[in-house]
Amino acid sequence: LEGERDITLGFVDLLRDDFIEKDRSRGIYFTQDWVSLPGVIPVASGGIHVWHMPALTEIFGDDSVLQFGGGTLGHPWGNAPGAVANRVALEACVKARNEGRDLAAEGNVIIREASKWSPELAAACEVWKEIKFEFQAVDTLDS
């Protein structure tokens, strides 16, 4: 989530697809034919919490691993409520996506709506507040 969005999406495709065309704008520097090598599952990890869920759902879709360490263990009520908060946030985002909602534009609203019926999610939302990406990407393409 700290890298440029197009690069992240390019890497996700690189991990999953059998064949990928060169596309420098997405960080793919040469055409790659993986032939019969199986794809791998992309992983998001490191500092993620419930407010990241809309972006994670939009970028990675359903076929990924989301590793919430502190985003689970840091819940004020303990580990199990932290896991519940993450699961509720994920299910709310998947449902919203499947209904055709724009996760990028409505993500924080979707999380706030879900927190009205999940006290675990409401507590997690209070701990981590709403996130804003107000910094330059650390992983950029050298054009």
Automatic annotation (TrEMBL):
Q: What InterPro entries has UniProt attached to this entry?
A: RuBisCO, RuBisCO_lsu_C, RuBisCO_lsu_C_sf
- Alphabetical list of Gene3D superfamilies matching this protein: Ribulose bisphosphate carboxylase, large subunit, C-terminal domain
Q: Which UniProt keywords apply?
A: Chloroplast, Plastid
Key word Cytoplasm present in the record? Answer: no
Return the Pfam families for the record: RuBisCO_large
Report whether Transport shows up as a keyword of the record. no
Source domain of life is Eukaryota
Listed GO MF terms: magnesium ion binding; ribulose-bisphosphate carboxylase activity
Instruction: Name all Ribulose bisphosphate carboxylase large subunit C-terminal domain ranges.
Output: 1-128
Q: Do you know which PANTHER family this protein is assigned to? A: RIBULOSE BISPHOSPHATE CARBOXYLASE, RIBULOSE BISPHOSPHATE CARBOXYLASE LARGE CHAIN
Q: Know the name of this protein?
A: Ribulose-1,5-bisphosphate carboxylase large subunit
Q: Which organism is it from?
A: Pitraea cuneato-ovata
